[in-house]
């Protein structure tokens, strides 16, 4: 399983979410990371509604109150910790989780 370093942990502090286009694997993967309460959550950047990317602007994956992941296409809201849709056209479907870990101040994705 490829272990891909995406950034320093410090790059995530205060930003809420960051998107990454991972070209070290084939096919390339579109993934985002959300930081909440010092925990990292990574998901495929693919909405379960139409499989489109979620963000309305680069790296903006959260709603204005920053308590849910939001899809910009049709407004679906997802729980940050579980990825489950709690509002919108894909209700109860989930974003695809990606394993993420921190080692020596760097953030790594573990891709299958
Ligand atoms: S594509 Fe995400 S809510 Fe429709």
Decide which structural class fits the backbone: mainly beta
Binned strand content: 35-45%
Residue stretches low in confidence (pLDDT < 50, at least 5 long) are none
Strand arrangement, largest sheet?
A: 1-9-8-4-3-2
Tally of domains: 1
Average pLDDT over all residues: 95
CATH topology: Rieske Iron-sulfur Protein
Computed CA radius of gyration, to the nearest angstrom = 13 Å
Level-2 CATH architecture: 3-layer Sandwich
CATH class: Mainly Beta
Helix content: under 10%
What is the H/E string?
Answer: EEEEEEEEE
3D structure, described in words:
It contains no helices and 9 strands. It has a single domain, classed as Rieske Iron-sulfur Protein (3-layer Sandwich), CATH 2.102.10. The N and C termini lie close together (5 Å). It has 112 residues and is mainly beta. The strands form 2 sheets. The protein has a 6-stranded antiparallel sheet with strand order 1-9-8-4-3-2, with no helix packed on it. Bound molecules: FE2/S2 (inorganic) cluster (FES). The site of FE2/S2 (inorganic) cluster has 11 residues, from loops. FE2/S2 (inorganic) cluster binds next to loops.
């Amino acid at each position: 399983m490829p272990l891909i370093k995406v950034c320093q942990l410090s790059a995530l502090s205060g930003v809420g979410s960051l998107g990454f286009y991972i070209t070290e694997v084939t096919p390339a993967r579109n993934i985002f990371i959300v930081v909440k309460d010092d925990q990292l959550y990574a998901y495929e950047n693919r909405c379960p509604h139409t499989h489109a990317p979620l963000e309305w602007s680069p790296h903006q994956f959260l709603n204005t109150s920053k308590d849910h992941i939001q899809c910009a296409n049709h407004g679906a809201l997802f729980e940050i910790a579980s990825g489950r849709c709690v509002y919108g056209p894909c209700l109860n479907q989930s974003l695809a989780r990606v394993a993420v870990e921190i080692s020596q101040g760097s953030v790594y994705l573990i891709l299958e």
